[in-house]
Amino acid sequence: MTRITTNGMLFNYRYNLMTTTNQLNKAMTQVMTRRSFNAYAENPAGATRAFKIHSSLNATRAQYDNNKTVTSKFETAWSIMDGVINDLAHELGKVPAMEGLNGTNLDNLDTQAQILRSGAESIIQSLNGRYDQDFIFAGSDNQEAPFAIEDGHVTYRGVKVDAELEDTYHDKNDNPIIKDGKEMTNGQVLQMWAEEDPLYVDIGLGFELEDGKVVESTAFDASISGIKVMGYGVDEDGDPKNLASIMLRMAEVFESYDPENKGDPWNGNEEEANRLINKFNDAHERMSDAHSELMAKANFLEANGTTLENTFDSLNTERQSLENVEPADAVMALSWAQLCYSAALQVGVNVIPQSLMDYMK
User: Fold this and answer.
1) CA dihedral 171, 175, 179, 181 (to 10 degrees)
2) Closest CA to 245 of 336, 138, 106, 117
3) What is the rounded CA–CA span in Å between residue 86 and residue 84?
4) What is the separation, in whole angstroms, between the first and last Cα of the chain?
5) Would you give the DSSP letter of residue 169?
6) Taking the alpha carbons of 254, 256, 259, 262 in that order, is the dihedral positive or negative?
7) Across-strand partners of 159?
8) What is the C-alpha to C-alpha distance for residues 136 and 84, in angstroms, rounded to an integer?
9) Residue 77 neighbours by CB distance under 10 Å
10) CA distance linking residue 123 with residue 12, whole number of Å
11) Considering the entire predicted model, what is its pTM?
12) What is the distance, to the nearest Å, from the Cα of residue 310 to the centroid of all Cα atoms in its chain?
């Protein structure tokens, strides 16, 4: 027969009361925080998994922000190119060029030349557009305006894109660029800029480094090389390959027209004028291809943004299933804990022996 002493009974009561109090406190905390655990020791496995999910959520959120910024940049670039191709090049390029070549408008060639030159300047200004504080079409060197018109020629980072291509390149400090022991020409530098190092951005493609370099398939190149979009150099006829330079050259040809010269009012430039209009169409087609490429990249970024949103939602759902409790279940658990606590207090009235003072009352 087991002998139950008063002290033993009081010890068990205090232990059970403390347990009931802790359960009540835990139930109240769950109702207020709606979390299933608040310390690693409460659920080591769940806490470990939740920590990994939080890390993935933070990474996904950063990737989504990067993707959103790059998407806005490429959409802005696409919009600028759309205006150049469909508005400026047509209204201020092709239309005045065709009207100038029309035999009935020869008396207005100076006017058409002014329109062509104005159109070329508008195209250059558009391609110097910004997104935030960066020049969109400046490639990786996006802090300075990439394009300009100097001495009747389009320049990119200070280099004429359709003249002096065989001359040795010198930077602002009059220093050449040495490659393979030789000084690079302007044409070689333009080609280098067209293929310059990309600006890689982590947009959730599995960003990886190999030998200190970014693996191309795991990141997105956020740079847009304006010289690659516009085009550079001259063709076999010595004519410019880019749209703005062709418009400037056509303006010069139109201005050379002299109606007083009855024998040759075009001063030998009529053939060039007709040739340039065909070159204009070719340059316009090349820019249209670049425009389509920008659209494809913008569409990819849009789709990738949707994927990142879905990934974030899935991770967040898993996190909630690990960390959160159903409000109804938490309230029921609190009610039960309160009932157990009240019962424990009621038991204490009968278990705790009365003192002398209790008898005196």
Assistant:
1) 160
2) 117
3) 6
4) 37
5) P
6) negative
7) 156
8) 14
9) 24
10) 88
11) 0.77
12) 18
**Distance, CA of 187 to CA of 192 (rounded, Å):** 9
> Which amino acid, 4?
I
pLDDT-based confidence at residue 109 (cuts at 50, 70, 90): confident
Instruction: Summarize the confidence of residues 326-349 as an average pLDDT.
Output: 78
Which tokens belong to 5? 């002493």
Q: Do the beta carbons of residue 188 and residue 181 sit within 8 Å?
A: no
- Cα–Cα distances (Å) from 95 to 8, 85, 99, in that order, read 105, 13, 6
Task: Return the biggest CA–CA distance within the chain.
Answer: 140
Q: What is residue 353's predicted lDDT score, i.e. its pLDDT?
A: 61
What's the token pair of residue 26?
A: 């835990």
189: left (phi over 0), alpha (psi -120 to 50) or beta: alpha
Q: Which of 169, 172, 171 is nearest to 183 (CA)?
A: 169
C-alpha–C-alpha distance, residues 117 and 134, integer Å = 27
Q: How far is CA 108 from the centre of its chain?
A: 46
Question: In this structure, are residues 233 and 185 in contact, taking their beta carbons and an 8 Å threshold?
Answer: no
